[in-house]
Amino acid sequence: MSSPLFLPNLDVVHPFLWILMLVSVVAGSSVIYVSSGKPLYGFMLPVLMTLVFWLFSQDQDIATLLGWIDVAYIALLIVFRRRYQQVMLQAQQREKYLQKQVEKGQIHEKKIILHQDILQDIAVHHGDLKRVLVSVVGRVESLYPDMMASILLLDDAGKHLVEGAAPSLPEAWNKAVDGIAIGEGVGSCGTAAFRKERVVVSDIENDPLWSNYRDAAMGLGLRACWSQPIIGVKGSVLGTFALYYSQPRHPLDEELDWIEYMSHLIAIAIENAKQHTALQRLLRDKQELSEVIEQSTDYIFKLNLKGKVIVCNQVCREFFTGDLEGKNLFDFLPREQVALIQLMMQKKLHDGGTTRYEIRIPDQTGLLHDFEINSSLRMDEGKAVGINAIARDMTERKDFERVMELRMQAMNASHEPIMILNDLGLIEFANPAAGRLYDVPYTSMIGKSAASLRKGMVGDDLYRHIIDTIHQGETWVGEIVFYSSEQGERTVERRVSPIMDTEGHVHHQICIDRDITEFKKQQQKMEHTQRLESLGVLAGGIAHDFNNILAAVMLNAGIAEKSHEPERIQVCLQRIRQGSERAADLCQQMLAYSGQGKMAVGALSMSDVVCDMMQLMEVSIHKQVELVYDLPSSLPNIVADKAQIQQVILNLMTNANEAIDEQQGQITCSTGTCWMDETQLSNAWTDDGLPAGNYVYLAVSDTGCGMDKVTLSKIFDPFYTTKFTGRGLGMSAMLGIIRGHHGSIQIDTSLGKGTTIQVYFPVSKENSADNIDAKSMKKHTEQASCPAKENFNMKGKVLVVDDEEAIREVACAVLEDMGFDSIQASNGEEALQCYSANMDEIVCVLLDMTMPKMDGKACLKELHRLDPNVKVLLSSGYHEEELYRIFDADKLEGFIHKPYLPASLEEKIVSILSP
After folding, report:
1. CATH number, domain 125-279, options 3.30.420.10, 3.30.470.10, 3.30.450.40, 2.40.240.10
2. Residue of 776 and 363 predicted with greater confidence
3. pLDDT tens-digit profile of 494-507?
4. How does the average pLDDT of the chain come out, rounded?
5. What is the pLDDT of residue 538?
6. Exposed (0-12), middle (13-18) or buried (19+): which is 190, by Cβ within 10 Å?
7. Superfamily classification of domain 296-397
């Protein structure tokens, strides 16, 4: 059997080994080609088979031949394996390329679907930008699961970015960037909006643009941010579209293209939403304008050039009865008005522009209305096709203007100066009379302050008083004095009333002045004449009162002279003392009447005051008149001046006595308490504003002649009297006393049936005396309780200075009883001589105020010049506060009011000289 050249001749024993050899070669080749990285196993099989073959054959040549065959085989296998790997690598690369193309196709398909979905969202939800932006962000994030998208919008000012949509970003981050200002170095988005270009930050930790936001971003797991500005059609920045990653990452070109592409879609969504909003606003404005036109009280209509009504509003239809659209307006107008309108239309076609004219048109009833018409041409492609017109019914305005013109003429014709001021006190209107009063052209007064006319200033005390009054809704009435270069000093009575809006706010003032200079002069002359005429009445009344007092004093003195009973003499002396005190009180009232007195208020019981005056009243009325008293003992107190209340009681009793005259009759004097409400107080003679509450009343009723309505209406007029016998200080003065005590008075009278007069005073409250208009005393009159007389060493001389000898004698007697030596002087000059001679011994000076040669004021000054430490006790019948306006209070040690009791003088002396 012949063999191939490369095989030796084998025995019949060896065929099986050759078969195994071939199998090993095939198996080794298969292992090498199949193995992905372990060719050693493929090489080992033929080598092992060669060894096995050699072992069986024991032929060295065959083994060598097989070895070379293995080497050649292995070399071929290596060459074939490399080629195979190259082919397989190319196949794998092709497979990957195809896979990427498939993935890109899928992504592209998704992008196309995303594009369609976004455009559909924009079309369907164009009015809800927030919803569209959230949908865009959600769809973008669905393509890239490891990415978080954000849309920020630029505000209207173009300065700040606000949240648009970022559902996947941490809420803390959304709050942190909401409202950030755009600018260089403001992260990715702020910088991108500022630069108007894309900003890619691959690593937030190391990028300087994030220096101010790095910690916050990294703390929330944000490591990369690519931001694309959203640019509108006109090139303006609308916002930013950004992609965030939790790891540092650099974008691929296709990703950057995708970001830019998405920003264009978002720009479409934003601008579409803005256009939708603008369109909705336009439609709403159009609807509102249509409603305004329809509801307008002006007559609005559109006409063609022949007068046919195209459109009109409701008031037009109501005025012309029915639907006007499609009808000719000229058919509803008088012929002469149609001619006027046609003439105006021709003029408008020629001149163009807007035309204003007035016409009179009758309504359905034939009543003529004044209309003001404003019309303009309606153009279409440069050609006039009709007229737009607005007509306003001016009938009421014309009537109002005529009324205002009449009022203006009346104010200008008025002889009373009239000014209208704004809320700042500046003059907005002045009539000619105002100019004549203030010697200036009335037209030049406009814009000036009313205060300047009186040479005052805005904000001074008078101005504030006026403003405070009118802002309370009240009219200020007062007098002002100014100097005119032509007329001299003028006195003006001014009334300033507020002009308020519906809410009660003062916006203007009306000021009416009246020159009362001559009236004041005439009034002063008249008052002087009336006062002179009233002196007789007053003297008679005072004489009447003093006669009553002196009668009681003389009667009691006569009884005391004849009586030998000490108790009866003591009673008479007590009555004499009471009468003297009443006379002193009457003198004090005369001082008050002359303006030199002052109220001394305190808590009083009305019943007690009447009881104290019973004796005096009983000797003051006619014997035919019966006195009846009803005086409860448990009345609440009132706060009043006792002397003035006594004067009121005496006046009422005297008037009642005179009303009965010398006929038989009865006078009833009663007191009590009652509740007075606003209605009752409004029906009484009183000041406005007395509050409802409990009042103490004094009622005096008589069975005399009564009064008619004429007499009753004049009873409180100054100096009014129906008799020349006098009425004390008069009802006018009595009313002043009552008002000064915040009281009121009611009169019930009937001619021929008598009169009842009731006087009401408010019940005293705790510390009410502090609320009456009484000033606190001077520090040197506010003395504590005096030291006991027996504990006081009374030595030295007291200089008594008075022009009345009787007063000097009595005062010296009291002082000598106290233990002092006394020196007398009848005037200021003698007092200075006596003091100079006895300066070291005189411990006190009792000084009268009114004296001949040198009065008390001049004497006091000289005494202090001689001795600055001199102690002076001033004595006078004038009220203390009146004297302190004349004297230097620091130069006086005290004051004692004439007439005074011995005990009062002793108390004052002890108070002054006590250590």
Report:
1. 3.30.450.40
2. 363
3. 899 999 988 888 88
4. 79
5. 52
6. buried
7. PAS domain (3.30.450.20)
